[in-house]
């Protein structure tokens, strides 16, 4: 069905109060001539008629062989997916800067380790290694032994010859992370950790040339398949670093052949290879013909679904689909409609506008149940926060009046409304930076500086000189100048409720606001560069540990992950001490001290921890939501007998 017909139907539903949340869509309203009562009466008949017509179209398409093709020719298994982004960013591990890019890279390129697809709690397992790394000197040295015979996907850089993955490729991939010209938000993962590597980076910063052939003490190739990694100090969390997409193996010949185009030309050893890419629209991945024999994970988690999947796919070779059809969209409406029409196979999260109709009361709507659609609810380790640019002269700084302004804003924002209205129930209140289920989370920690309290907020502003001097209803700053604060949010329609939430919050305490809107990647770039005043941001987990969340306010990650531009000497000392410890009461005590600094200085206001609801079509097999591997395409299969022909 064409998009316009869908929009007309949704507008009729809106007039009947059945889908009131469509008011947020950025589409032109279409006048519906039906009365609300008549629309309600005709709605079931209309839906039934649509279902019958679509079923007839599906049957006709399924029964008729393609023109010029034998009726018995096997159809390709094509997985149809969508990303709610306009661009995934660079598909180069050393320049990785978005979760969308990471999701694609992990299906094309491979780090040494991965998280088991089905095991819960999360478990690290070898990916390109023969076994888990040998740990020496209490976590300061890691010996990594590769599986022989792993091949890269074919590329012109290899001159038509098979190219085997060797230890030198991983050493080269690590080295590229230290090239100051290659900017990755994930650099903090290796910054200061590899013996001798930061010295090479410093020389390159001074000379303007990164010498990739210069030896690094911490990266020694012992033989064709063995790499010795030496750290500057023991770090037992380093195993998690070896599972990150920014350290996936890349061949030097490919980088040198494609030069500046390497960010759009990923070549790896993974299950898929890039076939075509129309920027901002669609990307196609195809099965990597050189991919080794890899078998489906043998053991499931404790839950019935993963146990069933492990048994169902035991001994199956992966990947099981032939192609990935990936579409990009910044609008959740066509994304959801594409899923409802069967043109998308899986959504790892129901778009927020559609949660009330898709999962009323947390249960899948009867109409979707009847279609065989499945839903899986899960906590996704992500924190959404309101950020302050600590370098801004108005909202930043550490003077008492500046701190009071941030704390007042924190007391004016209704985080419960953020969950109920802006996210339609897709979250839980944040009591810090570390989400539930991640080592370092403390369910008993109860800050009060991000809880709605307008009386306290107004009193704070009055006390520190932010008052309405001219009686127009808006406050001036302590110097008597109009107090106007810029709020940076994303331009996609699904963020409109956030704009409304912030506008109400600031108005409730007499502060004017000006909104600035950018698409996701551009918004993030502005925040990293400190070219904003306040704004909405989120952080998704890279590896399952509290360290991965506190890193977003570590002074050394300004320009990388620290969008608040927050530098606090006491906090940094505590964080660096905590990085040397595994999860323990001693580390938890350090984390609570860090929390108290954060909730006193308020460089950010944690809103919520994300709660997702994934939906899959009845013909999609093997899907289990994963807290790290969000797009596990190599583990998915399609029942071609059940799947209708795509319209």
Characterise this structure.
The chain folds into three domains: 1-59, no CATH class; 80-268, Periplasmic binding protein-like II (D-Maltodextrin-Binding Protein, domain 2); 379-611, Dipeptide-binding Protein, domain 3. 30% of the residues lie in helices and 17% in strands. The chain is an alpha+beta fold and 647 residues long. The chain contains 19 helices and 21 strands. The strands form six sheets. Strands 13, 14, 15, 16, 17, 18 and 19 form a seven-stranded mixed β-sheet that branches. It has a four-stranded mixed β-sheet with strand order 1-12-9-8, with no helix packed on it. Strands 4-5-7-6 form a four-stranded antiparallel β-sheet, with helices on one face.
Task: Set down the secondary structure blueprint.
Blueprint lengths: L2 H13 L20 H28 L14 E6 L15 H7 L7 E3 L8 E3 L7 E3 L4 E5 L21 H10 L20 H11 L11 E5 L2 E5 L7 H4 L10 H7 L13 E7 L3 E6 L6 E2 L8 H9 L4 E2 L4 E6 L3 H9 L5 E2 L7 H4 L7 H5 L3 E15 L11 H13 L2 H8 L4 E3 L24 H10 L20 E7 L5 H13 L3 E7 L1 H9 L5 E7 L6 H4 L18 H10 L6 H17 L2 E13 L3 E2 L15 E2 L9
Parallel strand pairs: 1-12, 16-17, 16-18
Antiparallel strand pairs: 2-3, 4-5, 5-7, 6-7, 8-9, 9-12, 10-11, 13-19, 14-18, 14-19, 15-19, 20-21
């Amino acid at each position: 069905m064409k998009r316009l017909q869908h929009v007309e139907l949704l507008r009729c539903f809106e007039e009947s109060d059945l889908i009131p949340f469509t008011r947020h869509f950025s589409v032109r309203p279409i006048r519906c001539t039906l009365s609300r009562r008549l629309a309600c009466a005709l709605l079931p008949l209309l839906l039934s008629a649509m279902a019958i017509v679509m079923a007839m179209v599906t049957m006709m398409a399924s029964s008729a062989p393609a023109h010029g093709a034998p009726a018995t020719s096997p159809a390709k298994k094509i997985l149809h997916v969508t990303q709610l982004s306009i661009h995934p960013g660079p598909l180069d591990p050393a320049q990785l800067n978005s979760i969308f890019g990471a999701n694609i890279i992990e299906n094309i390129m491979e780090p040494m380790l991965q998280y088991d697809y089905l095991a819960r709690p999360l478990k690290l397992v070898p990916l390109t290694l023969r076994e888990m790394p040998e740990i020496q000197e209490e976590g300061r040295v890691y010996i990594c032994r590769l599986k022989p015979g792993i091949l890269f996907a074919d590329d012109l850089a290899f001159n038509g010859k098979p190219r085997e993955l060797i230890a030198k490729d991983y050493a080269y991939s690590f080295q590229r992370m230290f090239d100051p010209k290659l900017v990755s938000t994930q650099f903090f993962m290796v910054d200061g950790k590899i013996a001798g590597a930061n010295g090479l980076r410093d020389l390159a910063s001074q000379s303007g040339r990164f010498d990739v052939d210069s030896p690094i003490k911490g990266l020694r190739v012992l033989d064709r398949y063995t790499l010795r990694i030496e750290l500057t100090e023991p770090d037992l969390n380093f195993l998690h670093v070896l599972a990150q997409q920014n350290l996936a193996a890349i061949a030097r010949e490919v980088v040198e052949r494609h030069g500046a185009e390497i960010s759009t030309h990923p070549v790896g050893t993974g299950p898929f290879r890039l076939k075509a890419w129309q920027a901002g629209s669609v990307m196609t991945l195809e099965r990597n013909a050189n991919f080794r024999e890899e078998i489906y994970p043998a053991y499931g988690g404790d839950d019935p679904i993963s146990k069933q999947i492990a048994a169902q796919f035991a001994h199956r070779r992966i990947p099981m689909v032939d192609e990935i059809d990936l579409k990009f969209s910044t609008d959740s409406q066509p994304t959801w409609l594409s899923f409802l029409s069967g043109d998308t196979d899986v959504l790892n999260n129901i778009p927020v506008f559609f949660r009330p109709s898709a999962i009323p009361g947390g249960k899948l709507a009867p109409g979707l149940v009847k279609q065989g659609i499945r839903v899986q609810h899960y906590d996704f380790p992500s924190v959404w926060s309101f950020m302050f640019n600590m370098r801004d002269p108005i909202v930043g700084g550490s003077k008492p009046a500046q701190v009071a302004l941030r704390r007042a804003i924190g007391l004016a924002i209704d985080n419960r409304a953020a969950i109920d209205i802006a996210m339609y129930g897709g979250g839980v209140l944040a009591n810090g930076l570390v989400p539930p289920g991640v080592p370092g989370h403390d369910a008993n920690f109860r800050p009060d500086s991000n809880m709605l309290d307008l009386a306290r907020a107004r009193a704070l502003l009055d006390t520190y000189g932010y008052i309405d001097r001219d009686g127009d209803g808006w406050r001036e700053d302590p110097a008597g100048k109009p107090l106007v604060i810029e709020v940076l949010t994303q331009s996609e329609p699904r963020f409109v409720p956030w704009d409304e939430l912030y506008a109400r919050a600031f108005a409730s305490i007499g502060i004017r606001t000006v909104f600035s809107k950018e698409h996701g990647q551009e918004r993030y770039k502005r925040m990293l560069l400190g070219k904003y005043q306040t704004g909405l941001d989120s952080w998704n987990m890279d590896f399952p540990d509290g360290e991965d969340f506190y890193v977003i306010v570590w002074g050394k990650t300004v320009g990388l992950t620290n969008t608040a531009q927050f530098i606090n000497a006491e906090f940094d000392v505590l964080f660096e001490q905590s990085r040397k410890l595994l999860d323990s009461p001693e580390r938890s005590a350090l984390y609570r001290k860090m929390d108290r600094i954060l909730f006193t200085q308020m460089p950010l206001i944690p809103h919520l921890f994300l709660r997702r609801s994934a939906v899959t079509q009845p013909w999609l097999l093997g899907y289990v939501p994963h807290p790290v591997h969000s797009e596990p395409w190599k583990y998915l299969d399609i029942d071609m007998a059940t799947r209708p022909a795509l319209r």
